[in-house]
Structure formats: structure tokens, C-alpha cells
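= Protein in question =
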Amino acid sequence: MDERNLPIKGISSLLRPILGLGRGLLAFAGLEEGRLHPRAAVLGALIAALALGAFLVRGGEQARAVFPTGTTVVTDQEVIAPSGLFGADAGPIPEGTPAQPTTIQYTVTVTIPIPGPSSGNNASLTVDLDDALSNVSATGTGGDFLGANCNVGAGNVVTCTVGGDTDLDPGTHTVTILADVGDLPPGTEISTATTTLSDVNGACAAPTCTYTPGAGDDGAYFVDVTVDPEDEVNLVGVDEVFTFSIRVRDPDDPPTGDAVDLIVCDSDATPADNTLGCTLGDVVITGPLQLVSFSVIDSDLSDLVGMVQVTVRPTGPGPGAGTVALRLDRITGTD
């Protein structure tokens, strides 16, 4: 087309709608013919609201962070009382009594790889312990779990929620849990804990998060030593009989060829001969109690259970308290 033939009024007609649009915006803003109308405040408020909305979206981006790949969660368990079983991470253990509790310590270590990033907000740790345990308590002991809010719910489910900025930063974070083994039937199995790490995005699963037991061969515990009664009150001079039951784990559980842990009397010189060998030297008495008799009433372990009876008599003048204990050893062999 020859530009010299383009009508001038055609250009003005094209510009007129654009000028009209600009004039409309100015009118909405309240600027028309040099006057400021109240509508300017409306536009100002709208712009402020949009700016605030953009800030909120930007500020909330941290909530969409996720656990970085390589995050590890290690749950280590070991017996810390009685002292003779310190460090046991699986196998047979005695039931606890009021005079001598059997306590298991669970240490959960969460490691966020460096340099990160951090987890999402609202990070928390859930540890589901066996229902048979009692007196469960939990404390944040390291990293971002220091000062964490830890609660023990129904079914011995422990939940620890991170405080502060609520996320887990790169580094190591720990929670320590204590639980007692109470009055339980012989052979009761105490399963290992189930641990879950979560944040605002939900539970962290493999391959992002790796869940492993501790450095030892953590596994199920079995209550293989019990005493009946656990606690008794007698008048001075009135005898009491305490019966210790020692259960031997079934040779086929674990399967043949696996390591087997046995509880035997400390003086037993031949612990693997399928006979319970105990002597008077294995009995420990404290307080105002007099030994009346001691006997191994069931030494045949072919039925997987052996029994020892200790009879004591409270002595005067009273009142007082004492304990009766049996020295035991834990050995490991192969079935």
C-alpha cells in the first residue's frame, strides 16, 4: 500500500479508542480535568491488597519445602536397667518389679543432610511403642528437638513437634524415650518401635527418608524371667515364698542356625546342658529379711521353663523394706 494514500483521519480514528481507554483509567483513578475524585482511594486500596497478597504467597513458600533426599532416621533401643543387662538390644529380658524396674531406652536420631534444604514447616516425629510397655516418657535431647513438645498418646504413641520456626534444619536432631517393662506374662514379646518423620507435606517415605534400627542387632524383646509375687507386705516372722520362672526360648524361634540368647543363673557352669543350675550364691537379699530356704524346683529345661524358689522371713523390729533377687547371666549361642 502507498503510505501517501493513507487518510489522516484514519490514524486519528485508530488512536481515538486508545485515548478513550487511557481517559477511562484516569477517570477511574479520579484524575480528570485536574480534579482528584474519591475513587482514587479505592484504587489505592486495591493496589495495597494485591501487594499484600503477593507478599503472603511469597512468604508461604517455605511451607512447600520438603525433606531433602538422604534424610535418615535411626531408632536405637537398649536396656539401661537393671545394670546387668545394660546395652541389651534384643532377646530375653526380665520383667520389672517395683524394687527393680526393667527400663528400655529408645534414642531416635534424625539427620538432615548438609547443606540441606530444611524440611517443611510443622515437622514432627512419631514413635509407636509396644502397647505392653508402661511409664513411657519422651524428651527432645538434641538439635531442633530441644524444647520440642513431646506427648504420649493412646497405645504408647509418642509425638514430638518441633518448636520455634517448626522446621528441621540441616544437621542432627534427637529424641530420647524411656519405657518400663512391667508385670507381664512369661514369654511376652515386646516389638520394636515404628518411627515416622513428618512435616506439613505429610509423612516422609523412602527413598527420600531412610528408617533403620540402631548400630546393634535391634529386635524384639521377650520377657523370659518373672517373679511371683512381685511385691508383698508381711508381718514380722511371717514367711514369704518368691518363685522365679526362667523361660528358655524355643530352639526354632528364631530359626535353626540363628544366634540364641539365654538367661541362666550366674553360677551355672554348664549353661547349655538343658539344665537350670543355680546355687545359694545366686540369691541376693537386702533389708530386714532372713533366708529360710532356697531350691531349684524345676531344673529340666526341656519343657522350656525352669523355676527357683526362695523363702524369706521378715525380722524385727519393723517396719522395714527389703528385696530378694536372683543373679542371672545372659549368654548367646547357636541352636
User: Anything to note?
Assistant: The first helix runs from residue 8 to 29. The radius of gyration is 36 Å. The CA atoms of residues 54 and 236 lie 81 Å apart. The chain has a mean pLDDT of 80.
